[in-house]
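Sync notes, pocket subgroup
Present: LS, DG
LS reminded everyone that the earlier model was apo-only. Rerun requested with zinc ion included. Inputs:
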Amino acid sequence: MAYTVSKLTDYSAAALERASAELLSALEQESVAVKSEADWKIFRDRWVARKNGVLTQLNDLWLKAAPKDAKREVGQRVNEIKTRVEDVVEKSEYLQLEIATGTPQASDIVDITLPGARRSIGAEHPVIRTTNEIVSVFQKLGYSVAEGPVIETDYYNFEALNFPPNHPARDTQDTLFIAGQAAKAGRERLLLRTHTSPVQIRTMETMRPPLRIVIPGTVHRNDPPDASHSPMFHQVEGLAVDTNITFGDLKGTLDHAMKALFGSSVKTHFRPSFFPFTEPSAEMFVSCFICGGSGKRGAEPCRPCKQTGWIEILGCGMVDPNVFEFVKDNGYDPKKVSGFAFGMGADRIALLKYGVDDIQLFFQGDVRFLRQWA
Ligand SMILES: [Zn+2]
């Protein structure tokens, strides 16, 4: 016969215990009998329906009817039962849902030797892979990785890197400024960093020489997107500061790095250039690792090196003493220390390495393109 809530005549602890044990055992038995969603709804209504559910009856027949001095204890007991009933009702609903959505039942044959459902983990993006390769070459030389904010101040992005006040790079034609800052002093105005070089200053402010850092990161310029330009791209930059660092150290380090990246047969070649933050400055070329420096691929001209046999790969130079002046108080006295810096575009190197002819492909997120690197 189905369980019904009966009035209590005895409010002693022992009697309460007996009555609630009887109720809970009925609850268990009925919950085990639930075999379908329809069963569950009946079960739920019988126990927790506001109108005449077992819990409601319990409230009326036990709690409201209890004499004043027993109310506290009966109340506690009713609350415990309520929590338990709600739990069981909820759990049995969950079991019904599992059956409904096809979770294996006892009658199914389970083949435990079948592989589980695997989630594909994706592949490294070619630009990230290239960045990591470059970074790891320098890490093996003892460089540590340094990073900094993408939203920078004019001070870190330009001023402390020895850009003169009217340098064209400071123009909105070239640089993406954050809007609404007219009221701020020039050097505090925020912009999207145009190179990773501000991290040089930020690191020198906090770490004393000797210093060897490699700086990967995204940078932004006001360039409309085309096959070789993107308003967002990736740089890897490096800085070494110590006593007696010479241009010979720069050449030796970068020559080693290029051989590690492109193969031991590549040659390097430096041409004078100009950057505000290095003096002297150079552009470094590597012998074309696609045509082996011949400028030809069979009978065809080699396009990546424009038939010259050389590919421009990075900018570099000796740190300008004016840059050290900004961090002089942290041990960078330009009379005592010297250093070199270099920076390269990871996207451009990835284009060359993987023979991709449009930089936009890197950022469009087309899985057909990206799957090639899986
Ligand atoms: Zn070539």
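DG: The domain at 126-373 is CATH 3.30.930.10 (BirA Bifunctional Protein; domain 2).
LS: The chain is about 35% helix and 20% strand.
Action: DG to write up.
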